[in-house]
Amino acid sequence: MISYSLLAFLGLPFWATATLAIGATVLLLVAVLLAVICGGLWLQAKASGTDVSLSGLVGMSLRNVSPYTIVNSQVMANQAGVTISTGRGSSTSALEAHYLAGGDVNRVILAIIAANRAGLDLDFDRAAAIDLSGRDLSEAVKTSIFPKVIDCPDPNAAESARSLSAVAKNGVELLIRVRVTVRTDLDQLIGGATEETIIARVGQGIVSTVGSMDSHEEALASPNLISKEVFEKGIQENTAYEIVSIDVASIDVGRNIGARLQTEQAEADTRVARAGAEMRRAEALALRAEMVALVAEKKASVILAESEVQSALAQAFRDGLFHPDDVEPADPDSILRFPGSQSSA
């Protein structure tokens, strides 16, 4: 009404006066609405010494960014004495960019504050990259401050054995459980290997170390030798963790693998020898059967020959060719003759 009266006093036409009055009212309402919505945040930001302007808060709302999240994060950082240093633009722009990228701004700021309190070097760019990579930034910072223990082998794995099996040169099996204390390496967190790689490398190192020992008694007498050898193998290389210590939790004697292998080898040799003996026996039986057949063949030949002798004797009798031994065969009278036989003379 005041604006309308003022415009009417200026002597403008009615339509112009009404248009200007409506515009002034709308602007006043917008100003009041912005003061109600953003005024409190702006005052909070200014009181905390942040670089957020009223127009910036309006722009955040238009860009679908939560002004409360951005302002609250900046206030937390300023109150904790943490500077959000970035390589591009202001801290407000960096927070908005991380918010629009789908990151958790509050979690990043809290992680930076915790790292700063613990004396860790963690800037906003690296923290934002870790957060956007899908890693749990809060857990990473917590593990950097308070190292955690990894059991090897992992007792929570679906098909994991309770102990690692390693065999010394004398063939005796050792069942070993190890506890690895690690802290997060923030420099290697992006792209670094996870706990599964640590567990696998520790297991590999234990098997290799025990396998190089002449006797299992060496490991039983000095379990620290296993920890020392495994630690010196550089199992933390290209991982997201820094190894603090490797400790042998338990070590037990398992099976005598060497003796069992020797027994199995002896049994295998016995089976091979038996198979060879059976093969030679089969060959001998085949040869025997062949000889029996050959003997039968020769007997048949003898019988055939004997039958031919009988036929020859019969023919000789028919021909009258038999004569006494003391008479010359040339004498015809000495030849035995039979009725019906013809003389040879």
Describe this structure in words.
This protein has 2 domains: 2-132, no CATH class; 148-259, Tetrahydropterin Synthase, Chain A, CATH 3.30.479. Strands 1, 2, 3 and 4 form a 4-stranded antiparallel β-sheet that branches. With 345 residues, it is of the alpha+beta class. The protein has 12 helices and 4 strands. The longest helix is centred in the last third of the chain and has 63 residues, at 257-319. The chain has helices spanning 2-9, 14-48, 54-62, 67-79, 91-100, 105-117, 124-132, 137-145, 195-211, 216-221, 224-231, 257-319; strands at residues 148-152, 164-167, 172-184, 241-256.
Shape: elongated
Work out the oligomeric state of the chains in this entry. single chain
Which H/E pattern describes the elements?
HHHHHHHHEEEHHHEH
Mean pLDDT: 77
The number of helices is 12
* Structural class category: alpha+beta
Question: How far apart are the termini?
Answer: 185 Å
Q: Would you identify the regions where 5 or more consecutive residues have pLDDT less than 50?
A: none
Helix content: 55-70%
Return the domain count: 2
Radius of gyration: 54 Å
Tally of strands: 4
Major sheet, described briefly? Answer: 4 strands, antiparallel
State which percent range the strand residues make up. Answer: 5-15%
A few lines on this structure:
The chain has 345 residues and is of the alpha+beta class. It folds into 2 domains: 2-132, no CATH class; 148-259, 2-Layer Sandwich (Tetrahydropterin Synthase, Chain A).
